[in-house]
Known about the structure:
Number of domains: 2
CATH superfamily of the largest domain: NagB/RpiA/CoA transferase-like
Largest sheet: 6 strands, parallel
Structural class: alpha/beta
Number of helices: 20
Amino acid sequence: MEITDLLKSERIRMVKKNFQPSFYSYLSNREKALQTIDLKEMKEKLRKIKEESIKHLEALKRKTIENLENQKIKVFEAKDAKEACKISLELIPEGETIVKSKSNTIKEIGLLNVLKGRNKIIETDCGDFIVDLCDEESSHPVAPAIHIPLDYVVEKIKEKFGVKLKKNARNVVRWIEDHIKKNILKARIGLTGANAISSEGAIFILENEGNISLVSRIPERHIVYAGIDKIVPSIQDAITICQALGIWGTGINLPTYINVISSPSKTADIQKELVYGAQGAREVFLILIDNGRSKMIEEGLEELLYCINCGSCLYFCPVYRQIFNHYGFHYFGGRGVGLTVFQEGIETAFDRGLYFCTTCMNCKVNCPLDIDIPNIMRKLRKKAVESGFETSVNEKMIENVRTLGNPFGEEVKEGKIPKELYCC
């Protein structure tokens, strides 16, 4: 779909209408949360954590795997999405019901498409459940259903489940909670992502709803998906990232829950003999995914991996606020386009917005790590041009500069506005 047609589409109009009040609520909440911290100190600390983590990633990864496996968590390494899905199929028996939490890494590898028709999959995150219920697409990494109006959710629950609810958020949440919990209690396989992994041997998963606590404990088998960039040196570093995700992700001082998983459930209550598999998960598996991340580091674009995926930048991005999940691919915004270059190829990145970024710097200003996405976009555009991908507008502008000495394609006269305006 052409951008002009996309902007006129009914879905985009709906997303814009419902995004605006959510944005103002987020802004107000974040402003209050930021008053509880030393902003400069927090940003410097976060930046240092990620710089050191990516700089020493290989050593940290080896240490992480060794410590986790000593604690009975089986770790697999996947070089790309295809290998991650192959490992998943070996761990997930065909026909088993799966309960999953929100995970951008699971979306990244396309796992749900692979499992479709093979396994029944239950979304346990309220936002993801609503997106699935309404046959919609996620529009934000932290708040996937931010664009869907309450009336429509109530209508869909009545249509699909025959349940008539009052049109208020509390009633809808209570019904969704009850419906999801019944499915979690029956499932034997639970899938989650991870927000940080300490090289000391601890997996950190934060949440507000409480669904991840259940998904990671009630099913017998818990499978965790994480990019290698989630690894940090220490437990304290991981906690700092979790705190930042609360503030910049949803505008709260701290997430309701921070799950720290270091092994399958265990007990030593019978004569101090350690037995794995108690009331919680009997098996825990971690799939560490590269999928282009090492290549980013090799090409000097490691700053893409500093992102903690809070989604703060998206609220302020003028491009995202126009076309939402059509800007980027698995991940949204300029950073999402950057990841697409290495995960899906330069052509897909070109189609999904490589030249859309206005380099306005709003993302950098609102990023807890000051990630310079505009500068990254310039480097990636250079890479695109070298690969033969350039917009017709750019080509025309450059030709005008060569032949006329200006980008407008006509003689520039004082007081006269050119017919076509270009910006470099």
